[in-house]
Amino acid sequence: MIRDFNYLRASTVKEALDLLEQHKDDYKIICGGQSLLILMRQGLVAPEYLIDIKNIKGLNTINFDRKNGLRIGATTTHRAVEKSPLIKKHYSVLLDMEENLASIQTRNWGTVGGNLAHGDPAGDPGPVFIALNAAVKMANKERERTLPLEEFFIDYFETALEEGELLLEVQMPIPPPKTATVYEKFNIIKNELGIVSVAASITLDENGLSCKDARVVLGAAAPTPKRAKKAEQMLVGQTLDEKLLDKVSEKASQEADPIADIHATEAYRRSMVKALAGKMVKKAWEQAKTSA
Amino acid sequence: MKKTLLNITVNDETFELYIKPKKLLVEVLRDELGLTGTKRGCNTGACGACTVLLNGVTVKSCSVLAVQAEGAEVTTVEHLADGAKLSALQLSFLDQGAYQCGFCTSGMLMSATALLNEEPKPTREDIKEGIHGNICRCTGYNSIIRAIEAVAEGKYREKR
């Protein structure tokens, strides 16, 4: 049963920031509420004030240009990302991700910013955006700041957002030439949360032979989405063969810090991280070879 | 807690309601407006029985605060038929026996309606994707898919 709260609706960013400042320590922000309402129903979250940002103009946007790359406003729905021709053309991994994220109904109302701010390590956008080298823009009444997304996630359901601060947008640079990013989650029922997931981004040299840069990001395998940095380092400067792939996947699995729960044991999650990391690195590598 | 004024259009009829902000859309539809065609199933956003159209797209009405539908247009299963005249999808569901207990039906119909609005010629895969968020525990999926296919193939064109 949801506990009573005071409902406040903001129609501009400024209005929202004023409300956040005014009700510090006692509010939750709602946008789509697809995660929040579940917590509220369970009584895990019972805010005094619920501040609705769904109708703020200008935050529900997808922009792309050759200089700044992709910018997704915080209140953009998952479905809008999925249906965006710009995203299909330039960041197809996001389309793959969205098509496997929850149900159409949830994607129609749930938002990208809400997903990130919820801070669930099993969320799909976190690992994929980090693989794409994303940053997030936030603001409070005094200032704006931008943070690499990998520093945004602090612990289970805990982010860098401070009291009075609002997530405004996610920014992703143009991927360098010869780069491919892929993502897969392992689950029993399609489109449910991943038991574990792995996103990989590989940048090859101009000849498409050796690895210039790599990102291997684990989802649902640690308290936050987590880069397997040692595994990434093992790839840089190398050419790919089965032996290296095996070592890299093993390292990624060691770098995971998973929990055991009703869905899987810790050992099982590590094994699945290993399997998925190998599969994703290989897939990204193959795609990077043929990418522009 | 202060009640909030909600202006909402449901099935082409406008309403002004004073509700507690914590009221879910499904509660307002069923308990305030008496539109019990929309079913309350799992209440956690998992089953899809409460699916309605909100400004033309499907949402799970158990997972949307009614106050967020301020100024919006909601369409429920009651709006599909024109009086006693059933919609193409409803007829097709009947012909294909796409019911067993019927609890998922209104949600299925709303998801199918949204799918056909968006993609009038869906593939079988599109249909499966389209009703992915709706669970049928009698496992009547094949008949439901056949029913949607039949409408997409134009078998009920004159009745739409």
Task: Put the structure in a nutshell.
By secondary structure, chain A is α+β, with helices and mostly antiparallel strands.
Structural class of chain A: alpha+beta
Assign the CATH class of the largest domain in chain A.
Alpha Beta
Mean pLDDT of chain A: 97
Work out the strand percent of chain A: 15-25%
**Helicity level of chain B:** 25-40%
CATH superfamily of the largest domain in chain B: Beta-grasp domain
Overall, the morphology of chain B is: globular
In oligomeric terms, what are we looking at? Answer: heterodimer
* Helix proportion range of chain A: 25-40%
- % residues in beta strands of chain B: 15-25%
What is the element string of chain B, with H for helices and E for strands?
EEHEEEHHHH
CATH fold field value of the largest domain in chain A: Enolase-like, domain 1
Sheet with the most strands: spatial strand order of chain A:
4-5-10-6-7
Task: Describe the structure in your own words.
The complex is a heterodimer of chains A (292) and B (160). By secondary structure, chain A is an alpha+beta fold. Chain A is 36% helix and 24% strand. Chain A has 3 domains: 6-52, 2-Layer Sandwich (Uridine Diphospho-n-acetylenolpyruvylglucosamine Reductase, domain 2), CATH 3.30.43.10; 62-172, Uridine Diphospho-n-acetylenolpyruvylglucosamine Reductase, domain 3 (2-Layer Sandwich); 179-290, Enolase-like, domain 1, CATH 3.30.390. In chain A, strands 4-5-10-6-7 form a 5-stranded antiparallel beta sheet. In chain A, strands 11-12-13-14 form a 4-stranded antiparallel beta sheet, sandwiched between helices. In chain A, β2 (27-30), α2 (36-41) and β3 form a beta-alpha-beta unit. In chain A, α10 runs antiparallel to α11 (242-255) and α11 packs across α12. Chain A is globular. Chain B is α+β, with helices and mostly antiparallel strands and 160 residues long. Chain B has 2 domains: 4-78, Ubiquitin-like (UB roll) (Roll); 88-159, DNA polymerase, domain 1 (Orthogonal Bundle), CATH 1.10.150. Chain B is 31% helix and 16% strand. Chain B contains 5 helices and 5 strands, in the order ββαβββαααα. Chain B has a 5-stranded mixed beta sheet with strand order 2-1-5-3-4, with helices on both faces. In chain B, β1 (4-10) and β2 form a beta hairpin. In chain B, α2 crosses α5. The longest helix of chain B is centred in the last third of the chain and has 14 residues, at 105-118. The mean pLDDT of chain B is 95. The A-B interface holds A 2-7, 9, 30, 33-34, 37-38, 40-41, 50, 52, 54, 79, 99, 102-106, 108-109, 190-191 and B 1-2, 4, 20-22, 24, 43-45, 48, 51, 54, 57-60, 63-65, 67-68, 70, 111, 114, 129-130, 132-134.
